[in-house]
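Worked example

This section walks through a single chain of length 607. The input is the sequence exactly as stored; nothing has been trimmed or padded.
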Amino acid sequence: MNRRDFLKWSALSAVAASAGRLPAQNAAAQRRPNVLVILTDDQGWGDLRVHGNTNLQTPNVDSLAREGALFDRFFVCPVCAPTRAELLTGRYHLRGGVHGVSTGQERLNLDERTIADAFRKAGYATGCFGKWHNGTQYPYHPNGRGFDEFYGFTSGHWGQYFDPPLDHNGKHVRGKGFIIDDLTDHAVEFMGRHVQADKPFLCYLAFNTPHSPFQVPDKYWDRFKDRTLGMLADPAADKKGKKTSRENIQATRCVLAMCENIDWNVGRLLKRLDELKIAQDTIVVFFTDNGPNGWRWNGGMKGIKGWTDEGGVRVPCLIRWPGRIEGGTKIPQIAGAIDLLPTLATLCGVRPVGDKPLDGRDLSPLLAGMKPDWPERYIFTHQNGRFSVRSQQYRLDAQGKLFDMAADPGQTRDVAGDKPQVAARLAKALEDFRKSLPPMPDTRYGGKDDRPFPIGHPDWPTAWLPARDATFTGKLRRSSRHPNCSYFIDWKSTDDRIAWDVDVLTGGRYEVAAWYTCPSGDVGSTVELSMSGSSLRAKVDKAFDPPLWDKDDRVPRGEGYLKEFRPLKLGTIKLDKGRGSLVLKAAQVAGGQVMDLRAVELTLLKN
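Given that input, the structure is written out below as tokens.
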């Protein structure tokens, strides 16, 4: 298809999106294009060879730029869950209730409609593989957000990358081998199965590397463990003005090894598209969720993951569609994760669903090589109450400083005094944006996320209540200061309480299991689970004391280690419909501790 035909095709697709169908004139009318979205975790803009990093080789990812389009200024959020929400909805994350990364703050409001909802309604098979990070309990679970198939984990951080425990459509399973190799295997199988069924697919492959823990197969680590790195993070000045390095070289080496493993898996995916003879009919998107998870080479930009400055939010974005997007296209206009839903919907002739206005723009005219009248736009960034705004040329940072990003990409000189009108215009845009947002709890200062965790959904009888979603009192503590993948330890007193704010959607009897470990010397404690006058008591009557999974790290970790947990059946409890606090306590402690607790699982029993 030549460019003129592509422009016509794009226009027809826009019409099709509004009508909910594809017109007969469209060359792809008989079969909409497939979509493969690859999202990596904590991989910075500088972690690709195509952006100039000579420390590593990423030929497969780089080929997407050579054979498709590269967005030169593509922006996401400073941390994981918000970016994922913006991909899913085409809307800023705060509009959908996502204002953190754990303890329920990562959940996407249930009245939001996702890209998977839209594509499934249009007849696509929809699959999500990897890190979800937008809610665990159904219908926050990916199977409740438009995805026919899910294989991965729902929290933000996962503590083990070799043979890890995972979730397959709500069932507990054990992965095989290195985690993203396994995720790729499942994505490849999903694509092949639906090609054989002659059904277009939306495959969302959310790799969880190079996020810590720093684990990677020997094949990749051996390439880097002793390597001298030629490109390093820019040194920073200490309090005395002396320049010093902030980079952990061993961590950087492992990240680079993980990035080369990512590239190998991208190569496997592209090869499979060729084998299935669908490369020409498949749109491939590759991007990452935030800036780098540590100080390393990143093109001299200011900031890393968690920062609202350029280095925390500017990431790679590459889109390939052979024959439709001209190879080597470089797009200078600012764009972001909010733009992917409207863009892919237009390219595929899919109508977005739901009644909420999108924040994102359709980028298909830019992908077509057109030179449209592209109005000035702003892209807004938020993290923990800090806001920044980016125009095509300027960034107004969270402190109100203005930087000319064309002349000063490292944000070294505040030009607000030289450009007061520009600073005022961006400040006004940012203020208007903040006023447009719904109220959100400031959890930094004790604000509460007032959304209960649902249990007993009629379409999904089992609810998983992990330790990260609980509140607790007493002297017990989490296994890690990072709640995401933690479990409770040091449970030694009858005064300790663990509680979940839940909404029982269906009243009835529930079978209860505690996912636990307990050494033989501590067996015998009695625990009590209660809610709104109903309760059950059970004894911890079986020992299970597995070792920590602490053998695979290449770099010492800051998070806690995981281990295997097993379900201990506690019995049944009758729960009435409605909201309340589900409380777990020890009625009697037999040994030195009650147990280590990973989660409580409740399954609605049939009448």
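What to look for: DSSP finds eleven helices and 31 strands in the chain.
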